[in-house]
Protein 1
Amino acid sequence: IGILGINYKLAFVASFATSVGQAQGITLQVTDRVGTSLTAPGDPGLVSLAADPRFVAAKAGHSGLSDYAPVLPAGGRGPTELSAYAPVAGTGWTVIASISKRVAFAGVMQLRNTVLAITAVLVFILLVGVWLIARSDRRRRMADQQVQRRDREMARVLDSTDEAFVSVDAAGNIAAWNARAADLYGWTAAEVLGRGMLEVLVPAPNRDAVREDLEAYRAGAPSLIVGQRVEMAAMHRDGHEIAVEAGVWALDDHEGF
């Protein structure tokens, strides 16, 4: 029968575990096969982890992770720790590494705070964007209302004047036609809006000359009609010619008359 004895200094084991724990930022505990802590401060024989579920699991040969709130000397439990435990093969010893849950999740908390901050900024930007869109839409509606009001006022002015008024767009189609024009030419506004001005108002023999004059004006040449008050022949709805004095001017965009 041979007996093999192994002697080890507990102070060395405790020093080694402390050094490794400090380097890794963790608390490192080593127990013997009966659960006595070999790394606890003071007399190791007075500290037993036999009832610690982490030791029990490691003693049974398991490795794993767990949340554990250590029992304090005065009773009660301390802050919850995140722990990893494993058996030391062939010895019956166990190793338990722990870190405060608050410390372990400090990076996660910082990430969460960063995400929340970014979310708050995005929400603020979204709210500012919605406010700007609402203000822009309100201004647009006000501008549209002003344009419509001016158009109504202009229509009332044109309808109250004693002269016929006709507006022509860039394509040469009639865009406005007041009541006096209806009396003079025999067409109602509903009948001529959108139709070509030359076909409605200008006698056929004169259409090419008028068309060429307006096109030359758009190209930058002087006009015999635009900017002038001229006497010319116009055409009534029933086909007969009538003598009119016409004043023609270009719109601000030089596209219509």
Note: The longest strand covers residues 81-88.
Protein 2
Amino acid sequence: MLTHENELDLYDILIVGAGPCGLAMGIEATRLGLSHLIVEKGTVTESIRRYPKRMRFFSTAENIEIGGIPFAISDVKAGRNDALQYYRKTAGYFGLNFKLFTEVIQVKKQADGTFTIHTTQETVTYRARKVVFATGYFDVARKLGIPGEELPHVSHYYDEPFGYSFTNVVIVGAANSAVEAALELYRHDAHVTIVHRGPDFRPTVKYWLVPDVKNRVKEGKIATHFQANIKAIERGRVLIEQAETGVQTWIPADFVLLLVGYIPDEHLLRKSGILLNEE
């Protein structure tokens, strides 16, 4: 449902973010008879849309259901496309009220206890009795702060393998995103090297991926540099340093994927007057 933009409207709840949590909040508001508006800077479940195209969730389907609507799939675990379809259809079923492709830039509390919400649409201001931040953390990649991190062949996101075939790809990280990308790239004829500051793959890696990736490493199909840090990125190569010895080595890299995780975006919260614990 598209919202009618009227500055005089006072919503019971304005929800920032149209991911699964934001949608679930909108559903509860609808059930309680509360007026609501979900403001999202992308499309519905934008973060899931940006996941790797063949990604499968760790949780079983029933654990990521919302609104009591069954997540019916033929497999135990849902993939990205399953989730995109499910959340979109569920949002439509409940007739949720959206303002999409609109970024909230500040929330101000008024003297009467209501809130004024300012967005990138400068001519429109929204008002609400309550505001819910459901912004997630997938939009802000964790930065390494090293030379070359902003070069065009460097990315903090991975989508699909076909653009990397027959090239040298260095992946920084050893959690789920890094392992899934490494396995998929290897199977599409990329020459993959994993660089990680720890001694092994992270213990949180999906259990069905662990034997697969470890066997590929054992076979020499995927190269690894554990207890190593990436120090610089240049066109065609990266500089890594062994943590224990300090020895530095250049290794070939046509592409670099910095899959070291994401952090919440605190800027909107701070700008809206919310005090955060620095730690």
Note: The CA atoms of residues 148 and 233 lie 5 Å apart.
